[in-house]
Amino acid sequence: MPSLKPVSRALVVSNDAAWLEPALSGLASASARLDNPFGIAFVSAHTGDHAMQTVKADGDLQLVVIDKSLAGLGAGQAALDLANRINSWRPELSLYVVLSDDERAMVEELVSHAVDGYFDRDEPDYHGWFRILSAELAEKSATPFYDALQAYVKMAKDSWHSPGHSGGDSLKNSPWVSDFYEFVGENLLRADLSVSVPMLDSLLHPTGVIATAQNLAATAFGARKTYLATNGTSTTNKIIFQTLLAPGDKLLLDRNCHKSVHHGVILSDARPIYLDSSVCREFGIFGPVPKATIYRAIKENPDAKALILTCCTYDGMLYDLKPIVEAAHKAGIKVIIDEAWYAFARFHPAFRPTALECGADYVTQSIHKTLTSFSQASMVHVNDPEFDEHLFRENFNMYASTSPQYALIASLDVGRKQAMMEGYKLLDRTLKLGAELRQKINSTGVFRVLDIGDLLPDEVRNDGVRLDPTKLTVDISKSGYSADEMEQVLFDKYNIQGEKSTFSTLTLLLGVGTTRSKVSRLCDAMFRLAKDRRRVPKQSYRMAEVPHFSWLACLPRSAFYESGECLYLLDDDGRPNEALTGRVCCDQVLAYPPGIPVLVPGQVITPPITSYLAKLLKGNKPVEVHGLADIDGEYAVRVLTQEELEAAPSRSLFLQDDEKAGDGDRQQPQKVQQLEQLPVPSADSVTEEVHD
Ligand SMILES: Cc1ncc(COP(=O)(O)O)c(C=O)c1O
Predict the structure, then answer these.
(1) pLDDT class for 594, splitting at 50, 70, 90?
(2) 426 C-alpha to ligand 1 centroid (Å)
(3) Alpha helices per DSSP H over 117-222
(4) Of 174, 210, 459, 568, which alpha carbon lies 20 to 30 A from 669's?
(5) Relative to the CA of 376, which ligand 1 atom is closest?
(6) What's the order of all strands across the beta sheet hosting 589-592?
(7) Does the CB atom of residue 365 touch ligand 1 within 6 A?
(8) Reduced to 3 states, what is the DSSP secondary structure of residue 144?
(9) Which domains does the chain have, with CATH numbers?
(10) Which UniProt keyword terms apply here (predicted)?
(11) pLDDT tens digits for 238-253?
(12) Which ligand 1 atom sits nearest the alpha carbon of residue 231?
């Protein structure tokens, strides 16, 4: 493959033609004479507005040089104003200001804003300026870990260390497994190294190339500190909990958070306060937690230590985060945002503000999900002014493998570099392709891309929720195909694999790797499927409502680590087992779809919960249920024995709370007795509704 050389444009802004002309020609001749690995070429603008047009339109723009003579608000102020405007639109651009030496005071002010450096107007050393601009790009586009990894592989050292395949030497001449060598390629195997190579630094104690890579990532994403992680956001969520939460500390969390968050509750022994997310039942899609619910939870739990929300949600719904973060901070609550699906947002204004820009203290991002890194490659960004670095490191190291996969770390370096150097351009293209795809799918008259108005549950309509336009939820209900059939036919006949589906929608994710030809193939498939539409069956499904959270009898950790006993979900007559009523669950029980935990460890089981699970498992649509035990081929729920419940160390916490609240019998053992006598509602009354 031919090597592609980058093109980098540098914009020089001045309304002083007498200064601008020699500056442009001096810089152009320096770029021709000197080494120019980034392909820097100079263009000009005469006004701030003209400069902004270029900043918005030119995806190859990397540098802006602003002359202080820019007309406008008085000497230098127009330059400062423009620097701020550019910075808030594209923070990744490098900004330089041209001043006279006696304007140092203003420089200080500028530098503290958005500016990376300045040039002296009285000393027009264009050769020197060019060298500085080129060095700036070298610094920004550096991939210190990836470079060191490549350099090490090129040195061709003999391996007398792990991993056992020894750079692929165990594979390459084997009649049995050399195909694996061919399949993954020599470089990946040679680069699969271990901590025995000191020049590659240590992920668990970075002081060299990994530390530098982390600093570059922090600058790129706008964090005080960034950590590279090779175990996915599933792990980084847990690391943050263990750093912030002592046993029994309150955590406010969306009940629909990713399961790693629920696992983190068990591991940290936190006391969860679940917030119900909104739900669009028509399409089976969960939305954000209503602002009113969050504010109420903050008010009722001022002693909470942290709040965690998912932004954007899997389906692309974005909170209006700033006021939420402010309300939490006012109460002294730290804010953690799971941005697993929104890592690219910093690099195009259409997606901002990011969670960090809204003031979040901790942000976890699966760089691998939406940018260019290998699966499991994630980052944690920290902006907490009270960050306990030592504690975080201890927790990070508790979860990290001592043999991290180096290709993942290199891919984080590369993913960050790409986002920084061409994220704006690629995302701009993605947005255009997304708009085109949306228009074409809608023009079939059969399929329809849902917009925010369709997806927003009523309870969050006035919450300022936005939709990420790179996540397309397509309503397929008029096609006569079920979602499963549609996914299958797209896969078998049109070679297309989507992200996920509900009973009436299909979700397609666009990203920096979306190409025009993929868009054409998808449109072609949708047009053909629209033509082949079937008679729409009379029945349409609405999502079964997940039963409301009942209450906790003890902390999730106390229940999870007990042996418990297993009770069948169904009785001998195939009805929901009444013996489960009032018992305390030991596991997290969760059905896909919708993916919200029906039960968490420590939660009291009620008749609607048993009926819901029974109906799901007996229904004719396949659902995956996690967390149930299998006893002789029958589903069972692991519950605490009465002795275990009474001995649970956190039990008193809940009994005390009840007494304080004055509804003492709600979580008392007597209530458990009473619940056992409650009638079990019929399965049909609580689960999936079918409409004619
Ligand atoms: C909201 C959310 N958070 C965290 C994760 C886990 O991320 P990872 O796959 O990087 O472990 C996921 C995975 O799907 C997710 O949807």
Answers:
(1) low
(2) 23
(3) 126-140, 144-155, 169-172, 178-184, 186-190, 209-221
(4) 568
(5) 10
(6) 597-599, 589-592, 624-626
(7) no
(8) helix
(9) 8-141 (3.40.50.2300), 200-422 (3.40.640.10), 427-531 (3.90.1150.10), 551-647 (3.90.100.10)
(10) Pyridoxal phosphate
(11) 999 999 999 999 999 9
(12) 11
The token duo for 548 is: 């409301």
Cα gap 260→262, rounded to integer Å: 5
Residue 378 near ligand 1, beta carbon < 6 Å:
yes
Our mutation pick for probing the ligand 1 site, out of 260, 364, 401, counting the most ligand atoms within 8 A of Cβ, is 260
Using a 6 Å cutoff on CB, does residue 339 contact ligand 1?
no
Tell me, in angstroms, the distance from the centre of ligand 1 to residue 366's CA.
7
* pLDDT, average across residues 210-219: 98
* pLDDT tens digit sequence for 331-380: 999 999 999 999 999 999 999 999 999 999 999 999 999 999 999 999 99
**pLDDT surpasses 50 at 660:** no
- Residue 310 CB less than 6 A away from ligand 1: yes
Atom of ligand 1 nearest to the CA of 310: 1
Beta strands in 430-587 (DSSP E): 448-449, 466-467, 471-475, 500-501, 505-509, 540-542, 565-568
Instruction: Report the amino acid identity of residue 277.
Output: S
pTM here is 0.92
Cα-to-centroid distance, 258 and ligand 1 (Å) = 6
- Cα 279 to ligand 1 centre (Å): 20
Phi/psi-derived region of residue 495, left when phi > 0, alpha when psi is between -120 and 50, beta in every other case: left
Query: Cα separation of 551 and 613, whole Å?
Result: 17
